[in-house]
Amino acid sequence: HVQLVESGGGLVQPGGSLRLSCAASGYTGSTYCLGWFRQAPGKEREGVAAIYRGGGGTYYADSVKGRFTISQNNARNTVYLQMNSLKPDDTGTYYCALRRGVCYLRHYWYKNWGQGTQVTVS
Q: Which of 30, 33, 56, 70 could lock 103 by a disulfide, CB 3.0 to 4.6 Å apart?
């Protein structure tokens, strides 16, 4: 049973930073992708960043390139999303998701989801 637990959200002023964490457990495979997605009220869930646990490749949405960094702590099965230079458009609920195999930034490729953590930039 895969469990994903996000933490680190909060309220921050424009230009500020936050670091989100996603602790993953219960997955027995050695190669998988962990992605971060966000959803604002009334909008579709969009992919933000992803990291491939098989080789460490990283992927970013154009809207966050140069501002967000995804990284991993293999020993703790934890993935982080460092978010800098935050903008009001970054506001939303941020979700961590896991899929077997390679990474995609489309939400429909992922079956396992966390409960989400709220990020508000205002």
A: 33
Instruction: Kindly state the average pLDDT of the residues 76-104.
Output: 95
Q: Indicate the residue type of 33.
A: C
Residue (of 30, 36, 54, 37) closest to 102 by Cα position? 54
Q: How many CB atoms lie within 10 A of CB 122?
A: 9
List pLDDT tens digits, range 62-72.
Answer: 999 999 999 99
Exposure b/e, 55-75, CB count within 10 A at least 16 = b: eeeebbbeebeeebbbebeee
Dihedrals phi, psi of 60, to nearest 5 degrees: -135, 150
Question: What integer is the mean pLDDT of 82-89?
Answer: 98
> What DSSP string describes 18-43?
EEEEEEEES---S-EEEEEEEE-TTS
